[in-house]
Amino acid sequence: MFGTPSMRSQLEEMEHAAEESLCNDAAFYEVLQALKWEIDADPQVQSIVTNMKVTGSTVFISFVPHINILVKAADRNFSLARRKKGVPSPDENPLTRALHAAACDVIRKSGCVSQLNALAIEVLDAHQGCRRILRELRRAEYKVVVSVGISSYAQIRPRLEQPAYAPDRNEAEGGGQERSSLPLSNQDAVFLRTMGISVDGNQTRRS
Questions:
Q1: Distance from C-alpha of 28 to C-alpha of 90, rounded to nearest angstrom
Q2: Where do the structural domains in the chain lie, given as residue ranges?
Q3: Alpha-carbon Rg of the chain, whole angstroms?
Q4: Which residue has the higher pLDDT, 148 or 203?
């Protein structure tokens, strides 16, 4: 039975069931949010993010949890093969790699991970199908280790510059005429209001 397609199918079923249940688990989400706050507050992460912003870039840090189930026998282990996620590609710049490494370091040291593991175990124990599989594996004297893996992602995007507005010839010559309408995004509208410029539909005028 050990390492057979049957065991592989059992582990797939448990991992899928746990991930599906945890997607709607408020406690699990709260711990993930706490982990994100720890990453954002880390001095090394903040230092790298500041350096990125100086270069005119926007920084995005995110992570994706996934369930890992390891079956241990006396002399061997078995788990599902998993693609490596969140690993920077060789062509990414040094700051991206440094940010990814800093986020991973926070995750490794965080106490949130043990809380996530405990919640994953609770979900499996509460799931009827998973309980049955766990009983079968333990009856065969296998040890089952459940953990939550975190794949972190760090991405840099160049900050888009807003092009300066250039009035056309008619507007330049007819200073008293009403400005032609311009399509404005919500962000543009908020910015104009802070500058004391009223926004009426798609037209702008100073207050």
A1: 33
A2: 5-158, 178-206
A3: 26
A4: 148
pTM: 0.68
79-83, 166-170, 178-182, 194-198 — most confident range: 79-83
Query: Contact 206/197 with Cβ under 8 angstroms?
Result: yes
Q: Fill in the amino acid letter for 144.
A: V
- How many helices (H) does the chain have, and how many strands (E)? 8, 5
Contacts 24+ apart (CB under 8 A), 138-145: 140/1, 141/73, 142/2, 142/71, 142/72, 142/73, 143/71, 143/72, 143/73, 144/69, 144/70, 144/71, 144/72, 145/69, 145/70, 145/71, 145/72
Query: What is the Cα–Cα distance from 101 to 61, expressed in whole angstroms?
Result: 12
For 125-149, the pLDDT digits (tens) are 999 999 999 999 989 889 999 999 9
Separation between Cα atoms, residue 13 and residue 5, nearest integer Å? 12
The 10s digit of each residue's pLDDT in 73-114 is: 888 899 987 655 445 554 467 888 888 889 999 999 999 999
115/147 Cα distance (integer angstroms) = 10
* DSSP conformation class of 72: E
